[in-house]
Amino acid sequence: MRRKARQTGLTIVEVMIVVVIIGIIASVAMPLVNGYALRSKVSEGLLLFTDCRNQIQEVYLSGSDLPGPDNWGCEAENPSRFVGSISTSNEGIVKITFGNQVNDLRLAQHYLTLAPMTGAGTVMAEQNLGTPVRRWRCGSPADGTDIKADWLPGNCRGQ
User: Fold this and answer.
1) Which of 22, 55, 69, 155 has the most crowded Cβ, counting Cβ within 10 A?
2) pLDDT tens digit string along 23-43?
């Protein structure tokens, strides 16, 4: 007896269902992936902050005069692929400007700031010379950050 060989495969309806499911998963996952990529670029800027943090802490601990805006010794132009510049204020607030190489208008030409804070929760100033920097406030709009909080790393959301 001969049996007819049945062809197996997917019908057009089954293929369409699979395509729709893949589309839904992609539409949910893509914004998350883009957000992670943006946060990683901001994290690169935070890594460059380390030199400034050490120099600012040393000046405040030493009790010597404040060096003035952009004279802390850690300022830079184009220090990395995504960061356009690093500047400082008279009090030592560090301002990281992201450059056009970021290729994302949500971040290009925007600022991330980090401010040295006293134990009382105020920004360090000349009257705090000779005392240590107790903590750093990162990503606060009060200091000049204009990047949306969702795009900042979890440890840098205006705290």
Assistant:
1) 55
2) 999 998 888 887 888 888 888
